[in-house]
Specification:
This protein has about 550 residues and is an all-alpha fold. About 65% of the residues lie in helices and about 0% in strands.
């Protein structure tokens, strides 16, 4: 381990990196469209985590030998960029594997990984049903051993994280106790495969029931200070994950100042009086589902007519949540828009709509941010990027995206285009108020993220901050604070990424003058894939 690895080509080093990543992270591989490990669960036992760390350190040496990436210097796109981002991913993963905040301290990561290992196989038709259910049978059989290894790995956990894991055990009771056993016989699977799958659902159900009891009665409770990740972890995530070069204190000051300005503007626009009007604007039950598609079509036409970007041929349809996961979905990290698998390339992508959403939420969140010009168009471009990291980093996995570095571009772009659609006049007056409230809420998230994980804010204070400054009801405020506590550095990336894109657009427009084309700028920006927005700014500047 002490000697530098023999020099290898960037392509060979990245091949090895991805091979090992997919083998160590089989559930993420399934969501990505890499199906060689669909029958496996990860090894998060103490020995498994230690082995992964040793392997990742060796991979970092190999990447360094391929491109001298230790100092974050970027010379050639995509090779040097991908080597640097792969190295950053491994450094972050080593910190997560060794520290108490993730695999060793959060039982909800375990329950989410096990449940979505099956959901990933039964909600997308990427292969014949027998093939997918055969893989599901193998994973269902592996769930008892996977959850049992948590007894050895988890030292303790804060109450809110344990409560989240127990909630997901309730979802598992629904999913494996009645939803999937009721759906499998009519799924089109052969009788033998169907019988095996139903039988192993019972195996998984029992394992989750036992795990829920262990969480309730045995897992030690961690001190409330554990809601905050160590400050060096936050610094690592912001520096190497988001490629933000400044200090955390400066970033926090800027977020607070921006929050003050955004709040003044929101009040001037009529908040909170407009809040009730926004909530009341809902399509009739008969028109609810079609309103998503109608809004999508109008948004696409507006974006194309204003030459905002090249809109790809990426069909999407809005459908109800599948019946076999619908009852469990409210208890899970169940996304309406889950990014298409990069390497499956299905002909149409299903967007599963929530049971109820007001008109502004449909326009801003479901259509613009997620299903249209935001994530969906960005994902199409990412999957065709020259950057191999950029192709897959923002794929939605069991509890979070595949690679932390994908967040500031993916979420930053989706927030940026909501601003853009407002600028071209697409939003109604109430949509504009709702969009301003979203800006306030996202800035509050940035402040909480930076403050909580710098040890400057408790979980309770974070929830109160969301109520007072984020103008959120108590229950969503508490849920948001808990989510922030689990994933340091994730909430700040929405504002940080959007700001980086706005700044870059102004810089390029000033440099190019009358020759500037917004469409050309956006197409080029998205061509880099889901890599950190501040890094794209460096590459384009």
């Amino acid at each position: 381990m002490g000697q530098p690895a023999a020099r290898v080509t960037p392509a060979a080093a990245l091949d090895h990196f991805f091979d090992r990543c997919y083998q160590r992270r089989p559930v993420t591989a399934t969501f990505t469209g890499v199906h060689a490990h669909d029958h496996e669960l990860p090894d998060w036992s103490p020995a498994g985590l230690a082995g992964a760390v040793e392997e990742m350190r060796a991979l970092r040496q190999e990447l360094d030998a391929a491109g001298r990436v230790a100092d974050n210097l970027v010379r050639v796109f995509p090779d040097d960029v991908d080597l640097a981002l792969a190295d950053a991913f491994l450094e972050i993963q080593i910190a997560e594997h060794e520290g108490p905040h993730f695999y060793r301290g959060n039982p909800a990561l375990w329950t989410g990984e096990a449940i979505f290992s099956i959901v990933s196989l039964v909600t997308r038709d990427f292969a014949p049903i027998d093939e997918r259910l055969t893989a599901a049978v193998a994973r269902l059989r592996a769930i008892p051993a996977f959850l049992a290894s948590a007894h050895r790995t988890l030292g303790d956990a804060p109450d809110a994280w344990t409560a989240k894991a127990r909630q997901e055990c309730e979802a598992a009771e629904i999913l494996f106790g009645r939803s999937l056993p009721g759906w499998i016989p009519g799924s089109g699977a052969s009788p033998a495969v169907a019988r095996a799958a139903v039988a192993e659902c019972a195996t998984a159900r029992s394992a989750f029931a036992a795990f829920a009891v262990w969480l309730r009665d045995t897992l030690p409770r961690a001190d409330a200070s554990r809601y905050s990740a160590p400050t060096p972890m936050l610094e690592l995530l912001v520096r190497r994950g988001h490629w933000w070069p400044g200090s955390l204190s400066t970033l926090l000051e800027e977020a607070l100042a921006a929050l003050d300005d955004a709040t003044v503007r929101l009040v001037e626009m009529g908040w909170p009086e407009a809040q009730a009007q926004i909530a009341s604007r809902q399509a009739s039950p008969e028109a609810y589902l079609s309103s998503f598609a109608d809004t999508w079509t109008r948004a696409r036409e507006a974006a194309v007519s204003r030459d905002l970007l090249t809109w790809p041929d990426a069909p999407i349809r809005f459908v109800p949540i599948p019946a076999h996961t619908r009852e469990a979905a409210p208890l899970l990290y169940y996304l309406s828009y889950r990014s298409p698998a990069a390497f499956d390339r299905l002909p149409i992508h299903d967007y599963v709509v929530p049971p109820a959403a007001n008109d502004s939420a449909i326009t801003l969140n479901h259509v613009i941010h997620h299903g249209g010009i935001g994530h969906h168009v960005q994902n199409w471009n990412a999957y065709r990027s020259a950057s191999r990291i950029g192709q897959v980093a923002a794929i939605d996995a069991a509890s979070r995206i595949a690679m932390f570095s994908g967040g500031s571009l993916a979420e930053g772009w989706a927030c940026y285009v909501c601003d853009l659609m407002e600028e071209i006049g697409f939003l109604s007056p109430l949509d504009r108020v709702a969009q301003q409230h979203t800006r306030v809420r996202l800035l509050a998230r940035a402040v909480v993220d930076l403050s909580l994980h710098a040890g400057q804010m408790t979980l309770e204070a974070a929830a109160r901050f969301y109520e007072s400054r984020g103008m959120m009801p108590a229950a969503p405020a508490r849920a948001e604070a808990v989510k922030n506590s689990m994933f340091p550095g994730a909430a700040v990336m929405y504002w940080l990424g959007a700001r980086a894109i706005h700044d870059l657009c102004r810089t390029v427009a000033a440099r190019e003058g009358k020759a500037f084309s917004l469409k050309r700028f956006h197409d080029r920006l998205l061509s880099y894939g889901a890599i950190p927005a501040p890094l794209i700014a460096r590459l384009m500047s």
